[in-house]
Every structure is written in structure tokens, then in C-alpha cells.
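WARN no homologs supplied; continuing
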Amino acid sequence: MTLDLRTLAAMLAASALLMSVVLCAGVRARRAGGFMKWNLGLGLLAVGWLLVALRGLLPDATAAATANALLFAGFCLQLAAVAEFGEQSAPRSLWTLLGPLVFAVLLLLRHNHAALTTAASLACAAALGGTATAALRLAGGGTPRRMLMLACDAGAIILLARAAAASFLPQPRSDLLAARAVDQAALVGLFATSFVASIAFLLLHRERAEAGLQRLAAFDPLTEVFSRLAFLNFAESQLARARRSGEPCTLLMLDLDHFRHINQRFGREAGDRVLREFAAVVRGALRAGDLVGRYDGEEFCVLLTNTAVRAALEAAERLRATVATRRLGGLAPAVTVSIGVAPCELQRPGSLHAAIDRADQALHRAKEGGRDRVAGPVAAHAQYAAAAVAA
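OK structure emitted
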């Protein structure tokens, strides 16, 4: 038993509008990431299916051409939406030129049902194929991206089959879709793929939002370095790898000198500017495998991978000198930094927290020694100082 074509088309139009409502409820940033284009595309699909349901009230030939043109324009808008989501280039001609052009062609073919269906199906299949290609180029995405690709590819195959059926099994009627079972199946299949693609697009937005929240949790928003918790987690992972490979690791604890006076004298905005510029200097001095995190206020923690204590003392001294000459925040006198250095004893339990404690103790010695200096383990620092004097 088959459904009446009008009833089926009305159901599909209502379902498309319902999908639009679901997207509005599931996506908060409704003007970003191609959401507006995708939702408008759903609206055009709904209107196209509604024209099918209203056939008889309008001239069948004109309604058929208009409905197919609306379907094509809706798929083009969804292609542009995926391109915008992936920050890809999507020419405006997709909806400003191609839509009217296809409508004009379909209007010319409105009295030839087979030619009309074939041309419209091929155009829509091309748009869906372009959407699948744009989804393939998305960075990440995982399961939602694959869902979107498969849905668009399946929709394109359905449309190609519809074009083939119209070419080899032409009908004398000029309706958009005749009440044959094969055409009804094509319409339902096309709606199903559109439904799956819309869910996939919603999941892409949700996944991006969750990734943004994870980034906010992992990075300090002011300095754009790791937050304290994220730094500790990543540092533990780095030390575990170093423990297996036998490479040395050294920890630095950095603290800006007299930072409270900066806030009191120049204001919190100036203090924030100093912190941002200081973090940028530290990031620029590190290698790819090193880690830096904002530990507490104006205190920063750095893990130098594959670095022995003496090399770490040299790196810390270069960093101290760079900060002293950089004039952070444009303030006078120049902002300086004190640095404590401690090795990570990888074979001992709790090596990271033990290294942080020792680096903090070394930092206090640097503060007590007059600030704007580097302090490390007593024996290692004495050897380093002696070598520096001899040099």
C-alpha cells in the first residue's frame, strides 16, 4: 500500500520544518558556523515539498519547475553552510547565480516531465556531491563528519537513480513526482538522507562547542598557556615518556618581581598586559616538546624535556636576560623575573610535585638573593657559576 503523494509531501515538508526547530534548539551560536545557511536550506526544501503537496492548486508544470529549483537552492545553501563551518571558500554564485539559472532551465523544460526530472536530479546530485567533498575537507569531526559524507553521497546516488529512471522510464504526466512506488521511494530516501545530514551537522556544532569548552579548561584565557591543572596533566605524561626513554627533564619556576606594585601603580590592565607579553616571551624561548603553564597569579611553571640541569640553568639565564631587556608592557623601570631550577628525579614516586617543590625553594633563594636572578640546586648552581666565571 502506498501513501497519497500529497500526504507524503506534506509530511516531509512538516518534518523539514521540525528539523529546523531541532537545530535551533541544539545550536546556541545560531549565526556562526554556517548554521543560518543550513537552516535556510531546510526551509527551501520544506517549501519545495510543500509545492508538491499543493499540486492541483497551482499549474503542475510551473509548480514542478519551481519545486525542483527550490530543492536545488536548498542543497546549494547546505553546501555553502558546510564550507563556512570548515572555513572553506564557498562562492556566492552557488545561491545568487546557479539557483536562478537552474530555475530558468527547469521552467523551459516544465512541459517535458522526463527532461525536467533528469535535469533537476542531476543538478541536486552535483550539489550533494559538493557537500560531501566539503565535509571530507573538514578538520576532525570524527563520526559526525563521516555521517554527513555518507548521507550526502547516499542522497546523490538516489538522485542519480531518479534521473536514470526518468530518462529510461518516462511518464506522460508532467507532475513533479508521479505516484509510482519508485518515485515515492526516491522522495522518502532523499528526505531520510537530508534528516541524517542535518543531525550530523548538529553534532558537528556540538562537537566544536565541546572542544571549545575543553580548550577553555586547558588554557589560561589571559596568557594562552596551559592552566595549572592542564600543565600538571601534560607534564605527568611527558615525564612518563622520559622515564621510559631515560632522558633527563628539568623544571623551572618563574615569578615576576614586584608584580603587585605593577598592579597598584599602573592598574590591573597594565598588569594583564605584562602577563600576556611575558607569556609570549616564554613561549618563544621554548622548544616544541617543552611545556609552560600559569601556575598561580604571576607564577609560571616550565618543563624542559630532554634537558639536564646545567643546560636548564643556561636556558633560564637567557630567558631572565631577555625579560630584563624587553620592557614588558612598556613600563619603566623594566619588569624582571626570578627563576628557580630543579631536576626531575624520574625514578622516584611523585617526581613532578617533588621537582615543583624544589624549584619553588630555589625560586625563594633567588628572591632572597636580590631578585632578577636564577637559582638552582646548590651544588649544580655552584658548578655552573664557576664555569661561567672561568669562561
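The radius of gyration is 32 Å.
OK
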